[in-house]
Amino acid sequence: MDRLEFCASLARDAGHLAHTGFGALGMKGVSMKGRHDVLTEMDAKVERFIREQIAARYPNDAVLGEEGGASGDPNAEHLWIVDPIDGTANYARGIAHYCVSIGLMSHGELAAGALHDPSHERLYWAGRGTGAWMNGERIAVSPIADMQQATVECGWSTRRSTAEYLALLQRVYDAGCAMRRAGSGALGLADVAAGRVEAYAEQHINSWDCAAGVLLVREAGGFTNDFFAGDGLNSGNALVATNAALAEPLARVVGIGPLI
Description:
The protein is of the alpha+beta class. It folds into two domains: 3-138, Fructose-1,6-Bisphosphatase, subunit A, domain 1 (Fructose-1,6-Bisphosphatase, Chain A, domain 1), CATH 3.30.540; 147-254, D-Maltodextrin-Binding Protein, domain 2 (3-Layer(aba) Sandwich), CATH 3.40.190. Helices cover 34% and strands 29% of the residues. It has eight helices and 15 strands. It has helices at residues 3-19, 41-57, 88-92, 162-174, 185-193, 207-219, 232-235, 244-254, and strands spanning 30-34, 37-40, 62-65, 69-71, 78-86, 99-106, 109-117, 122-127, 131-134, 137-138, 151-154, 178-180, 199-205, 223-224, 237-242. An eight-stranded mixed β-sheet has the order 4-3-5-6-7-8-9-10, with helices on both faces. It has a five-stranded mixed β-sheet with strand order 12-11-13-15-14, sandwiched between helices. Strand 6 (99-106) and strand 7 form a beta hairpin. Helix 1 runs antiparallel to helix 2 and helix 5 runs parallel beside helix 6. The chain is globular and about 50 Å long. The protein starts with a helix and ends in a 6-residue tail after the last helix.
C-alpha cells in the first residue's frame, strides 16, 4: 500500500472512530484550549489512533499533530500533518460539519492528502499530479468567473483582531461576493475543490487544518497562495484558495497572495 492509499484509508478509519462519539457527548468531556478553541476527549483518541497507525506502517516518518505536536526525526523525508477533528466546536455541539484531515509532505513538498467527513460519508483525497477525488469520482473547482456570482467562505481566527476580520468581510461584500462561515477550514477547502463554493479565505490558519485541503484545491484545478512560505508549517499563515478565473481579483480583495 503506497502512502496515498494509506492516507485515504487512515482518514476514513479515523473519521469512523470520531463519529462513534458524535452526538453522544453534549458538552461532557469538553475543555477549552483558549477562547473559542474547543477540545474533546475524542480529539486525543483519534490523534493517538492515527499516530499509532503511521508508526506501525512507516516507523521512520515524522508526525505533526494539532494535539500532540511534532514527533519523530525533524529531518525525516516524510512528514504527516494531522488534525484529528477539524470543526471540533461543531462536533461538540452535535453539528454535523467536521472532518479528519491528514496531509503528507515528502521532501518538503505536499505529496498527498485526505479528508473524511463521516457525517455525510465523503472521503476526499489527492496526490500530487493525480487529481482530486471524492468517493472515487474526480472533482473540480467551480468555473464561475464573476465576483458577483461567487461565494467565499471566510474563516475566522482568534489570532487576528475582530477589526481585521470585519474589514475582510466588508471587502468581500463590497466586491459583490456572497459570504459564509461554517466552522471547518478543511471542509471549506474541500467545498472549493468540489466546486460548491468559489473560494476560501482566512487571515490565519494552522497547517494541520489545511495541508490536505490545499492539495485538494490545487489538484482540482484551483490556486492557493504559498501557505508554507516562511514558517507556515509550524506557525500557520494566511490562506486563500479559489479557481483560476478569480485568483487575481480575489487575491486583491482579501489582501492575500499571490496565488500559485
